[in-house]
């Protein structure tokens, strides 16, 4: 009976394993091989060039600018989104007078903040592209209506502002999901913990730091990894929103955009594959380091 059970399990897993090999592992293997060639992506046999593509990455100023911009996003996007998500979740959960219960209409506010998740990335990019328009955009129009004409800017055309304008859209579009995630995790924390802290005279900040954050740490860690991966991407928003795209002067260039341009504009598929492999290992290293750095003793709920 035991052998029959093992045979059944093997037969059930074999189709899924074959599909995984064909559609997941095989493309990875092909990308690794292409990164060692100078294939143009159209016809002819790919010429093996070894590590030349990777050596060229180290001297490519546009790729290095893309790496720098992705690192800026990596340092700011997870921290900004998680901090704002935790703040909003805590405010909705304990924002009433006295800090003992949620604010009135908390579910409605959660839906409002979550709404950007229902929109595709392309729609989000187009909408914010209109909002950032220097002449007829909502942001500059609002500033001028308030008499703050001096603050009006060409948000996506100034090198010092363009990347942070994209960053603001990334945070806006993602914070609703993490607000709902953290709110659901807070609902699982026993109320007795907060009642005991209240009786001990703990303030809201102390309660958050000593009770809420430790019990949400696993959720925060997962959110940090996912947002870090999003920061290492950023292709769609940059492609649609920015001039160039990747401009001005490479101020919003990201690795995904450089990869796309080299592959489908310059027909340098081997070089683009090398960028993809570099991005793959960079993402893998980040995920491992983030999980190890954030590892701490698990807090069990009684």
From TrEMBL:
Location of this chain's protein in the cell: Cell membrane
Domain (ABC transmembrane type-1) ranges: 67-290
Keyword terms of this UniProt record: Cell membrane, Membrane, Transmembrane, Transmembrane helix, Transport
GO cellular component, one term: plasma membrane
Main localization of the protein described in the UniProt heading: membrane
Protein's recorded name: N-acetylglucosamine transport system permease protein
Keyword Transmembrane: yes
Topological category with respect to the lipid bilayer: Multi-pass membrane protein
TM stretches of this protein: 71-94, 106-131, 161-181, 219-241, 269-291
Domain of life from the UniProt record: Bacteria
A Pfam family that the UniProt record links to this protein: BPD_transp_1
Family the UniProt entry places it in: Belongs to the binding-protein-dependent transport system permease family.
One GO process term, biological-process aspect: transmembrane transport
Originating species: Crossiella cryophila
